[in-house]
Design brief:
Radius of gyration: 25 Å
Bound molecules: cytidine-5'-monophosphate
Number of helices: 13
Strand order of the largest sheet: 12-11-8-13-18-19-20-21
Distance between the termini: 29 Å
Structural class: alpha/beta
Shape: elongated
CATH class of the largest domain: Alpha Beta
Number of domains: 2
Strand content: 25-35%
Length: 403
């Protein structure tokens, strides 16, 4: 699925070593369906060539406002008029200082001053430059002027130092640009999500678990951040990276067993919406062995199971009414092998929650695709087969109307 279809992005490149990431960024934005129009400062051309950017984007690269070979050299007005956003990556300390003062002494700064579209900056500089009071003044002024800053991150810098000021990676910038364009249906809402499987130890090397890649729960986490929420993601063992981590809008707690997931979730249950997406093991081993159990010929061991706590049920018990609405609004998930609607709705009523989402199987485990059946007090509604992120965005839009 492409998330930037029909988006026109002016990609500004200023002078800094992180400009080496700009070609890859242009490629990733285009892979998401965006059209990319590059504008480079003079210093940027010391790090990456206009020919590289032209070849990758298939568009002429604008370098100067004094180019008389361009039929309409009002590029500084025209480019922003047709753009959905100007994204500057890297944004150097010098460029940010100029923009914060409203200076317009080259094409890129003039373009920004004359724009009527959003401006997104991805700062990249040495940590001393980032921490300098002058840069921090620019950051504050730009934020006050409604400019969106993506990053910077902390880490290794080209100068050999380690610290704040590193430009985000192209994949992180692309993810944040996509998020920028999503509808903000949950501004500042607190969203709690359980995702992935749990793992119940038998001994230090063995255990039992459920089928769950965590993809659906992580997609909901991403869609919630995109919608403006502050997200707490409680994840069982799964091999997925935290979505939109660089936004600072998401916290992740990793857990292993159902009991750990229960404790972490109940601790964080003071929230607006709770999505119980995790495939929690219903039973754990009563007394896992401290050392690896040795094979006893052909004899199978006798394992004693005990029921795990029901996380969703226990969160549902904490629900209060705030402004006439349940707080948190609890959404359960159900994967059934037969009679999905009947079993899922029974589960919804038993757990005392307003909404449950059925996975219309059977091929959802580990897949990027899914089909959902949303059941609430007013009935059921199918969400047609699509990528999990697309489904998650639709689900977030539905739930946002309930709270
Ligand atoms: O396992 P079951 O089909 O009952 O799961 C239904 C819903 O309850 C899911 O949303 C799941 O995340 C949640 N659940 C839970 N704690 C359990 C079992 C299930 O939160 N111990």
């Amino acid at each position: 699925m492409q998330s930037l279809i029909n988006k026109k992005i002016v990609l500004g490149i200023s002078g800094g070593i992180a400009a080496y990431k700009a070609p890859e960024l242009a490629r990733q934005l285009m892979q998401e369906g965006a059209s990319v129009q590059v504008v480079m400062t003079e210093a940027a051309q010391q790090f990456v060539t206009p020919v590289t950017m032209q070849a990758l984007t298939g568009n002429p690269v604008y370098l100067s406002q004094w180019d008389s070979t361009i039929p309409n050299n009002m590029a500084h007005i025209e480019l922003s008029r047709s753009a959905d956003a100007i994204l500057i990556a890297p944004a150097s300390a010098d460029l940010m200082a100029k923009l914060s003062l409203g200076l317009a002494d080259d094409l890129l700064t003039t373009l920004c001053l004359a724009r009527d579209c959003p401006l997104l900056l991805t700062p990249a500089m040495n940590k001393q430059m980032w921490e300098h009071a002058a840069t921090q003044r620019s950051v504050k002024r730009l934020a006050d002027d409604g400019v969106t800053l993506l990053g910077p991150a902390s880490g290794f810098q080209a100068c050999g130092e380690v610290g704040m000021g590193r430009m985000l990676e192209p994949a992180e910038i692309t993810e944040q640009v996509i998020a920028f364009f999503q509808k903000k249906s949950l501004p500042s809402k607190k969203v709690l999500i359980t995702a992935g499987p749990t793992f119940e130890a038998i001994d230090p090397v063995r255990g039992i678990t459920n089928h769950s890649s965590g993809k659906m729960g992580f997609a909901i986490a991403r869609a919630a951040v995109e919608a403006g929420a502050q997200v707490h993601l409680i994840a069982g063992p799964c091999d997925l990276s935290t979505p939109l981590e660089a936004t600072g809008q998401i916290t992740r707690t990793n857990v292993v067993s159902a009991k750990e997931m229960h404790a972490a979730t109940l601790n964080a249950a003071d929230c607006d919406i709770f999505f119980a997406v995790a495939a929690v093991a219903d039973w754990g081993i009563t007394k896992p062995a401290k050392e690896k159990m040795k094979r006893q010929g052909n004899q199978a061991p006798h394992l004693e199971f005990s029921a795990n706590p029901d996380i969703l049920l226990d969160v549902a018990k904490t629900v209060k009414i705030k402004g006439g609405k349940p707080y948190p609004y609890c959404v359960g998930f159900a994967a059934e092998s037969t009679d999905l609607e009947k079993h899922a709705d029974e589960k919804r009523q038993r757990k005392g929650i307003p909404m449950i989402v059925g996975n219309i199987g059977p091929d959802t485990f580990g897949s990027d695709l899914n089909q959902l059946l949303v059941i609430d007090t007013s009935g059921s509604k199918k969400i047609a087969k699509a990528e999990k992120l697309q489904l998650a965005r639709q689900l977030i839009a539905l739930v946002a109307k309930k709270i």
